[in-house]
Specification:
PyrdxlP-dep_Trfase_major, Aspartate Aminotransferase, domain 1, alpha/beta, Aminotransferase_I/II_large, Aspartate Aminotransferase, domain 2, transferase, 16 helices, pyridoxal phosphate, binds (2S)-2-hydroxybutanedioic acid, single chain
C-alpha cells in the first residue's frame, strides 16, 4: 500500500516535470494557413490554403440538396441515439451501392456485394477512415511499409506514421517539368517491397491535380499484381474531375473487375462526403475493405469494431443521415446538379486565372491539365513567401493553390501578384 502510493508520487512528479518540457509544435501545414490568414489586416488578402469550396463571392456554401435533407431531418427525426460502431447499415449499403455498384450499374461491384466481399464502416470523414485502415494494417497486415506518391496530401504521412506504419515515397510528379513523372513512378513501384501497401489517389490527386490516364493506370495495376501490393485508395474528391461522381470512378470500376477475377483480390478504399457534398465539418466518410470471402468479411468487420470502439466508440450521425436522406428520399439528382455547378465554377475560375497570367516568361499550360480543387503552380517556397508577405496571398509552401478561394473579384489581383513574383 505504502509502496504503491510512493510510486504514484514519483510518477506524478516526473509527469509534472515533463509538462514544462513539451516543445511548441509547428502549425499544421494546411490548416495553419487559415489561422495566419485570419490575422492579416490587408483587405485584399486571399486564402488559397485549405481545400474547401467557396462561391464566387468568397463565401462557403451549403449545397441546396443538403439543406433540403436537413429540413426533412428536422421535421421527421425522432431520436439521436448512438449509431452502431461501424455506422448505420443503411449508410453502409448506400456507400457500397453508390461507389462499388455505381448506383446499380456495375455488375462486378454487385457481385462483390452479393457475395459479401465488401466490408464498409462509416468513419470520421476521410482522415478518420485513413487512420482506421492504417491502425488495422498495423495490427493485422504482414507489411508495415506503405508507399505514398511524392508529393502527397500533407496529412497522409502523419496519419500513417502515427499508426506505426512506415511510409516511403514513390515518384509521382516532376516539379521541374510541372508534369507527371510516369517513367519514374513505374520504376519506383517496381522497386517496392513485395507485399507492401501502396497508396493511390483515385482522382484529382492532392496536391498536384494531375491524374493518371486509363492506360497509365493499367500499367500501375500490372505492377501491383506482379508485386502483390495491397492497394489503399484515397478518394477525397470524387466528382471534382468531371463534375460527376460516377465518371470520376473509373479506377474503382477497374478494381472491382480485378477483384472479381481475383487478380487483385483485396484492396481498401477511403472516401468522404466532405468535398462532394460539402459536409466538411460533419465528418462523414467511410472505409471499405474488399475481401476474398464472406467469412473473411465477417472476421474483418468484427476486428474493425474492436479497433474503433476504444477510439471514438461510434461515428457521428448528422452527416450520415444527410447522405441517407439525399440518396433515399429523392434528392440524388438535385445533389448531382449542385455538385456539377460547384465543379463548373472551379473550372471557369481556373481558366480565368490562366487567362490573366503572363505567359511570356513562364509556361502555365500545366494549370489546364490539372483537375479538381487545386492548381499546383510550380512556384517555389521563396516565391510563395513573397506572395504572402507582399500581397497577402496565403497558400501552402509547396505552391499548391486551393482555387476555390479565387473569384471574379480577386482573380486579376492574384494573377498580377503571381506575375510580379515570377518576373524577379
Ligand atoms: C486539403 O488538402 O486542404 C484538405 O484535404 C483539407 C485538409 O484537411 O487538409
Amino acid at each position: 500500500m505504502y509502496r504503491h502510493s510512493v510510486r504514484r508520487q514519483f510518477a506524478t512528479a516526473s509527469v509534472l516535470r515533463e509538462w514544462h518540457q513539451i516543445p511548441l509544435a509547428p502549425p499544421d501545414k494546411i490548416l495553419g494557413i487559415t489561422e495566419a490568414f485570419k490575422e492579416d489586416k490587408n483587405p485584399n488578402k486571399i486564402n488559397l490554403g485549405v481545400g474547401a469550396y467557396r462561391d464566387n463571392t468568397g463565401k462557403p456554401i451549403i449545397f441546396p440538396a443538403v439543406k433540403k435533407a436537413e429540413k426533412k431531418l428536422y421535421d421527421n427525426e425522432k431520436e439521436k441515439e448512438y449509431t452502431a460502431i461501424t455506422g448505420s447499415k443503411n449508410f453502409q449499403d448506400i456507400v457500397k451501392n453508390f461507389i462499388f455498384n455505381n448506383s446499380n450499374k456495375d455488375p462486378n461491384g454487385k457481385k462483390l456485394i452479393d457475395e459479401g466481399r465488401i466490408v464498409t464502416a462509416q468513419t470520421i470523414s476521410g482522415t478518420g477512415s485513413l487512420r482506421v485502415i492504417a491502425d488495422f494494417i498495423a495490427r493485422f497486415y504482414n507489411s508495415k511499409k506503405i508507399y505514398v506518391p511524392k508529393p502527397t496530401w500533407a496529412n497522409h504521412v502523419a496519419v500513417f506514421t502515427d499508426a506505426g506504419l512506415q511510409p516511403e515515397y514513390y515518384a509521382y510528379y516532376d516539379t521541374s517539368k510541372n508534369d507527371l513523372d510516369f517513367a519514374n513512378l513505374k520504376s519506383s513501384l517496381q522497386k517496392a517491397d513485395d507485399g507492401s501497401v501502396v497508396l493511390l489517389h483515385a482522382c484529382c490527386h492532392n496536391p498536384t491535380g494531375m491524374d493518371l490516364t486509363g492506360d497509365q493506370w493499367e500499367q500501375v495495376l500490372e505492377i501491383i499484381q506482379q508485386k502483390k501490393l495491397f492497394p489503399l485508395i484515397d478518394m477525397a474528391y470524387q466528382g471534382f474531375a468531371s463534375g460527376s461522381p460516377y465518371e470520376d470512378i473509373s479506377l474503382i470500376r477497374r478494381m472491382t473487375e480485378l477483384a472479381v477475377e481475383n487478380k487483385i483480390p483485396t484492396f481498401a478504399l477511403c472516401q468522404s462526403f466532405a468535398k462532394n457534398m460539402g459536409l466538411y465539418g460533419e465528418r462523414t466518410g467511410s472505409i471499405s475493405i474488399i475481401t476474398e470471402s464472406a467469412d473473411q468479411s465477417k472476421a474483418i468487420e468484427s476486428q474493425l469494431k474492436k479497433l474503433i470502439r476504444p477510439i471514438y466508440s461510434s461515428p457521428p450521425i448528422h452527416g450520415s443521415k444527410i447522405v441517407e436522406t439525399i440518396f433515399n428520399e429523392g434528392l440524388l439528382d438535385e445533389w448531382l446538379a449542385d455538385l456539377d455547378k460547384v465543379v463548373g465554377r472551379l473550372n471557369t475560375i481556373r481558366q480565368k486565372l490562366y487567362d490573366n497570367l503572363d505567359k511570356s516568361n513562364y509556361n502555365w499550360d500545366h494549370l489546364l491539365k490539372q483537375r479538381g480543387m487545386f492548381v499546383y503552380t510550380g512556384l517555389n517556397p521563396e516565391q510563395m513567401k513573397r506572395l504572402r508577405d507582399e500581397f497577402s496571398v496565403y497558400a501552402t509552401d509547396d505552391g499548391r493553390f486551393s482555387i476555390s478561394g479565387i473569384n471574379d473579384a480577386n482573380v486579376e489581383y492574384l494573377a498580377d501578384a503571381i506575375n510580379q513574383v515570377i518576373k524577379k
